[in-house]
Specification:
single chain, 473 residues, alpha+beta, 32% helix, five-stranded mixed beta sheet
Length: 473
Amino acid sequence: MKNLFLVWLILTTIIYSQSSSSEKNNLLSFSGISVTIGGSFPLTGSFPALMTERVDQFVTRIYNEAVSRSLSNAQDEEMLEKLKKDISQYSLRGIKLKRSSGEEVILDLEKFRLYGDFKNNPYLKNDDVLIFPPYDMDKNFFTINGAVNRSGKYSFVEGDELSDAIELARGLNPAYENVKLAQIKRLSYDGLNQETINVNIKDNHILNRGDQVIILADETQRKDFYVLVLGEVNQPGYIPITKNASKLGEIMKSVKGFTDNASLKRSRIFRGNSITPLLERQYGIKIGDDLLNKNQELVDRIVNYEQAMMFRMSNLVEEDKYYFATENQYRVLNEGSAIDFTQVNDEKSDIYNFVLESGDVIVIPPYTKTVYVFGQVSSPGHVKFVENKNFLYYIDQAGGLGEYAEDEIMIIKGDSRNWVTATTNTIIEDGDFIFIPKERIKSFQTTINELGGYFSIVGSIATVLLLITQLTK
């Protein structure tokens, strides 16, 4: 008889797993098990259940039904997001299971999902009642931080101990050594006073509602310290370094030095995420999360705040602010890049001993073997570099000056980006830029407006002079 029952149970389970939703409901009804959900749960009432279902499987199924019903009635995106948030607010801890026999058990499904302990996830029986506790993470909570695997805020259940907090935080983080002590910050009921309780982890101290637990340990410095070397070196890539102790010369040795095509004059060091987006675009790589702050809004706020601080005590007029903002942005991007790589192999030089920081990016560009001509020329672009040729040669190679070219032609040096007024004596080097500005063409109306301003000033001065003349007679 017992064997027949087991066969029936297996067949029922198989048929259930392969059935449609309506068929499942019929099978559930046929199983003769009814389970009631009460308390703070998205969907309460009595529901059919399989004899083979455990609490977590049953709760998950009913929750999914609640989600499906609620979201099907959502009218817009905002309402949908609000419903999702409201439905998800229920506690997996402190669930009371009441049996028809009078037995009562407190279940912790959050612990079950972390560790798979089935004492927190028993099989259901007919007429079981599951009572979910009130969900209030503003008042019924504790927090845990420090040397644990998952810091966070968790629902508080009466009787929670320090070991429960550590369990929910997925245990002590093995990266930390000699973890023995915990500190509990406990506010008074009126919130005006705070008690600090230092305990040994093994003592398993009882927690109170609202406790803030810190698992104490010295911060580990075994971290992913590295720099990224790109461009004309023999072994480019991510190079592990020590914390603020690795020298530039040592790193260049570790990448087996420069290639024959390396342009040391134009080589640069950039600090962290200041240059990351440009490098990703230029080199077609994805730089790690440590180099690129995902929270772009926060980055923008910090940049804007820093800029505001720079402006706050200045005497800049409105016309100067754009230029200053450009220079300040360049300062941020270029921080730490004033390095002469031609001395990097000299172990006694300051450049060899320049200390790198984690996240630094070293870019060794190639010789371009060209001069870039742009602005008011017929064919802007790269022109092959020829030794001892002046700027007129390169303009001629780029198709000559345009009709509206301005006389003051500028040379932008490839290594320093300094702007130099072009003369026949200006030395043009590999990687330089030649910029031909456009002459400003004024419309008749613009000319009249400008002259009107001048005439107004002259008229005012004449009026003042006439008044002074009259008064001195």
